[in-house]
Design goal:
209 residues; alpha+beta; two-stranded antiparallel sheet; 6 strands
């Protein structure tokens, strides 16, 4: 029996298969844009590449987190600027109320505006939030002690969710109003011009803070 074969054709077919494999690999690199697509291309290089890719993506996310933090701070800053503007206006009204030429109607109008500004400050503090997180709103109880109308003061401790404590003291004069647990309290007497002068320093202290 004669065994027929064609070594030249077999060798050509083998070389064609190798060429097609190389062409397929090159096409994959061109289409993906990556020099290394699998461990067979470069095992050590793939390990280094994946490690660097992890670091790059982590840094990109950290940058995104920082931008979110900046946005939150800018939101809080805008709200605090509005509060500062209202405190400045309250200071202006307190100085205006100390004018001896004001009538009772004038002083009542001034007091009405101050009360509206106080309400607006509370509203800003209650509603300012970023991504459903309140930025200026307190989250814990406030303890206070109320004295007589001529020597009133507010003292207490504020707690945040992290357990930190801050003690505050605020002097209240005649005509001042304060909101506690959703209820507004006013300090009333027949003293007007003198009390308006005494309130100026309190408002200015709040502006400085």
């Amino acid at each position: 029996m004669v065994v027929q074969h064609n070594l030249t054709a077999i060798n050509a077919n083998r070389m064609l298969g190798i060429t097609q494999g190389t062409l397929s690999s090159s096409t994959e690199k061109l289409s993906s844009g990556y020099k290394i697509n699998r461990a067979a291309d470069d095992a050590a290089g793939l390990s280094i590449s994946e490690k660097m890719r992890k670091q790059i993506r982590g840094l990109d996310q950290a940058s995104s987190n920082a931008e979110d933090g900046i946005s939150a701070v800018q939101t809080a800053e805008g709200a605090l600027q509005e509060v500062t503007d209202m405190l400045q206006r309250m200071n202006e009204l307190a100085v205006q109320a100390s004018n001896g030429t004001n009538s009772e109607t004038d002083r009542q109008s001034i007091q009405d505006e101050i009360e509206q500004l106080t309400t607006e400050i509370d509203r800003v503090a209650e509603t300012t939030k970023f991504n459903e997180t309140y930025l200026l709103k307190g989250g814990k109880d406030t303890q206070c002690k109320i004295l007589n109308s001529y020597d009133a003061g507010l003292k207490g401790d504020m707690y945040d969710d992290g357990g930190a404590t801050a003690t505050f003291t605020t002097n209240l004069k005649v005509g001042d109003s304060v909101s506690i647990a959703g209820k507004e309290y006013n300090i009333i007497s027949d003293r007007n011009k003198t009390d308006a002068k005494e309130r100026i320093s309190n408002i200015q202290d709040q502006i400085k803070k």
